[in-house]
Amino acid sequence: MKILLVEDSKTISDNIQKFLSLEHFTVDAVFDWQSALSKAEKNDYDCIVLDIMLPEVDGLAVCKQIRKTSETPIIMTTAKGQIEDKKEAYEYGADDYLVKPFDLEELLLRIKALLKRKNSFEIFQYRDITINLTTRIVTKNSKEISLTIKEYHILDYLLKNYGFPVSRADLVDFVRWGDSLFENTEKLDVYISNLRKKLDKSLIQTIKGFGYKIAKENS
């Protein structure tokens, strides 16, 4: 996932960039309004984190300009926390508003929430595979594929986090309901392997040392 970070403080920018990089985001960091508009015009970003207090031209004007050609989610950041300031940001086209100083974990949660909203879907298509998240019907070459409850819940959780790597620990925690579904994480490898065999070996990608993610549609 690719983030455009517009922040004139080098220290704050470096901290945010390092943190998001650890969460497997690619971050383009710029420090002024000209670079922000140029990057937003030339690149396709999944989210923009935009400081209001920029030199010369403020972030609100940048946000308004970006909104003329793009629906990319925008999170405004600022030291101003009055309701009037927030209202103005939303009127200019911001999707969210974060008051400085903020916890980097909160920024991450806000980004993920916006991206999940952006990437939400009922039908997922990957090559010759169709997954209906409403009916829970999975087909390959128009033929229905039978998945066990365990396999479907793993697939469903990965799809609900589409675009994000999911850790092995999170997967195990999510699918452990009622009686323990996994005695240990080794069983997770078996279910992942079964899903790859039934669907497509490239559908679920391994993130070395971390977990798994769903491949991009039609890749």
Walk me through the structure:
This protein has helices spanning 10-22, 33-42, 59-67, 83-91, 104-119, 149-160, 168-175, 186-198, and strands at residues 2-6, 26-30, 47-51, 74-78, 96-99, 123-126, 129-132, 137-140, 143-144, 166-167, 204-207, 211-214. The model has no long low-confidence stretch (mean pLDDT 88). The strands form 3 sheets. It has a 5-stranded parallel beta sheet with strand order 2-1-3-4-5, with helices on both faces. A 4-stranded antiparallel beta sheet has the order 6-7-8-9, with no helix packed on it. It has 8 helices and 12 strands. Helix 2 (33-42) runs parallel beside helix 3 and helix 6 (149-160) packs across helix 8 (186-198). The chain has 219 residues and is of the alpha/beta class. The longest helix has 16 residues, at 104-119. The relative contact order is 0.10.
Task: Note the main attributes of this structure.
22% strand, 8 helices, 219 residues, 41% helix, 4-stranded antiparallel beta sheet
Instruction: Note the total helix count.
Output: 8
Structural class: alpha/beta
Q: Determine the N-to-C terminus distance.
A: 15 Å
- Spans of at least 5 consecutive residues whose pLDDT stays below 50 are none
Q: Order of strands in the sheet with the most strands?
A: 2-1-3-4-5
Q: What percent of residues are in strands?
A: 15-25%
Measured on Cα atoms, how large is the radius of gyration?
A: 20 Å
Number of strands: 12
Major pleated sheet = 5 strands, parallel
N-to-C series of helices and strands: EHEHEHEHEHEEEEHEHHEE
Globally, the shape reads elongated
Average of pLDDT: 88
Estimate percent helicity.
Answer: 40-55%
